[in-house]
Amino acid sequence: MSKQKRDPYEVLGVSRNATADEIKKAYRKLARKYHPDANPGDNQAAERFKEVSEAYSILSDPDQRAAYDNLGWAGLGATAGGTGGDPFAGFGFGDIFGSIFSDFFGERRGFRREATGKHIRISLELTFEEAASGVKKKITVKKHETCSRCNGSRAEPGTSPRRCSVCGGSGVEEIRQRTPFGIMINQTICNACNGTGEMVDHPCTLCKGTGLEEKTKKITVDIPAGIDDGQKVIIRGEGEPGPHGVPPGNLYIIIRLKPHKYFHREGNELIYEHTINIAQAALGDTIYVPTLVKGEKAKVKIPPGTEMNTIFRLKNKGFPNVNGYGRGDMHVIIRISTPKKLTPREKELLTELKEIWAAKKDGS
Q: In Å, what is the CA distance from 332 to each residue of 289, 302, 316?
């Protein structure tokens, strides 16, 4: 049995009352620290990165976070190996409420069927450049599909399911109880056919009577330009097939942005830090900084007397709005470096400059 998974709040080092921004900030810090690119060959860091990513996947999604807060890992339908599909999988809210209303109101219409099958959730990592321009990605998904041998009938070819003799094909059993308020009718799933309404005497040898077989499917996904970390791309109908012929669920692709060597993202704004020397800051200069467009550099004029942490804004050089309305800006933050090792000539010049500045300060 796998080891017990850690609390997502503990993994990210945030409190249970942490805001979305605090959770995102904690994730980015840890992702940069443990990313495989920053720790080549370090399997422990790679596992830590996976743990951090999963924790953020849960806490950045309001529905999943609420489910975890209420019920822990059980609320996510999680096993020790991962969260799997629908965050409420395995808990059976529909069955609980259906049973309650059947008990008290004698509902005779049978159990509420699920609207769709279970959803599948996967993570997809993108670079900043891919997120900025949009990209087509081929992904591989393991999922169940209709059995190719029995075509979903669950019976071996040449045979057919028969109607359940216990429930008469309805899939439900009625239990009548006499109470002080009258006769109450409680409906439960038929134990004989497990709610299918059919009995299979000769199960399909491929799917073992489930009507489904696991397949690996390759899907091409269009990722829109401007998509941000934690946002989802939904492909409808590519989840798990539903029981009793209901439509399949959806495939939720959760985007994870790979930390960038130079850039930092805040919404649609792009942040870049550039270091200049004392002479450039004092005299002014023209610098060229990288952008999100491959091979493109933007020109920035540094005026004389530029101070530490001065910010220059480059309009429309940030991320496009994922909904197609406008584009963010790029902010170049200036850092000024102080030399630690000087040549004799550099020492001579700086000493002379120091004396000149001292004389100006004294008014001489």
A: 8, 11, 13
Q: Are 36 and 46 in contact (CB under 8 A)?
A: yes
Tell me the backbone φ, ψ of residue 46, rounded to 5 degrees: -65, -40
Six token digits for residue 240: 């798990």
SS3 content of the chain, % helix, strand, coil (to 5): 25, 30, 45
Query: Which residues on adjacent β-strands are paired with residue 187?
Result: 174
Confidence of residue 105 (pLDDT cuts 50, 70, 90): very low
Residue 294 tokens read as 């491959």
Q: What is the pLDDT of residue 291?
A: 94
Give, as one character, the DSSP assignment of residue 286. Answer: E
Partners of 266 in beta bridges: 269
pLDDT in tens, 266-316: 999 999 999 999 999 999 999 999 999 888 999 999 999 999 999 999 999
* Residue closest to 275 by CA, chosen among 287, 265, 283, 267: 287
Separation CA 28–CA 24 (nearest Å): 6
Residue bearing the bigger pLDDT, 294 or 134: 134
CA nearest to 55, candidates 74, 90, 30 = 30
Domain ranges of the chain: 1-91, 263-362
SS3 call for 298: strand
CA dist 163 and 350 (Å) reads: 96
The domain covering 263-362 belongs, at the CATH homologous superfamily level, to Urease metallochaperone UreE, N-terminal domain (2.60.260.20)
CA distance 101 to 106: 7
Handedness of CA 218, 219, 220, 226 (dihedral sign): negative
pLDDT interval class at 97 (50, 70, 90): very low
Domain 1-91 class in CATH: mainly alpha
- CB of 273 within 8 A of CB of 290? no
The DSSP bridge pattern shows strands 263-266 and 251-257 to be unpaired
Q: Single out the residue of 228, 70, 217, 49 nearest to residue 144, CA to CA.
A: 217
> Which residues on neighbouring strands pair with residue 222, listed in sequence order?
136
